[in-house]
Design the sequence.
């Protein structure tokens, strides 16, 4: 999802050398920051990342994040599923604030924009009201029988 070129940070001490950050690192920072926000259920992934997680492979922390670098301007697109019942605008604003804050704190880079794409709402998983031992809802499935096989 990220561009192939590294991002070079402006060093306050140029005599020490360059600091370069791979775009994938920024994607991981964004993915972790978004997953910590109340109301975010999960990030949108690709089919391959979903299959990898099913087989127990390492979780892709940068899934659901698209990083774009144009003319030294960095923009981020976040694709997330939210929990049912949360305020979508409030959670989206929280995502934007947290992402900008974490990227600035951890890398000293300022993002030009953070675009939030809500791709779905996840409802709570409810318990099945059907008893697998009583599929047809017959309350009284056992009858009392006396020794002769007659019902009492």
Sequence:
């Amino acid at each position: 999802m990220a561009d192939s070129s590294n991002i070079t940070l402006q060093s306050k001490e140029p005599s020490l050398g360059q600091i370069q950050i791979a775009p994938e690192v920024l994607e991981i920072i964004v993915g972790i920051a978004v997953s910590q926000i109340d109301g975010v259920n999960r990030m949108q992934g690709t089919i391959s990342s979903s299959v990898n997680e099913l087989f127990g492979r390492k979780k892709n922390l940068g899934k659901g994040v698209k990083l774009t670098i144009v003319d030294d301007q960095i923009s981020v697109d976040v694709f997330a599923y939210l929990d049912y019942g949360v305020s979508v605008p409030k959670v989206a604003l929280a995502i934007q604030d947290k992402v900008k804050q974490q990227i600035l704190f951890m890398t000293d880079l300022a993002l030009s924009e953070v675009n939030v794409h809500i791709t779905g709402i996840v409802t709570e998983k409810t318990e099945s009201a059907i008893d697998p031992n009583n599929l047809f809802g017959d309350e009284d499935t056992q009858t009392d029988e006396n020794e002769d096989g007659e019902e009492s």
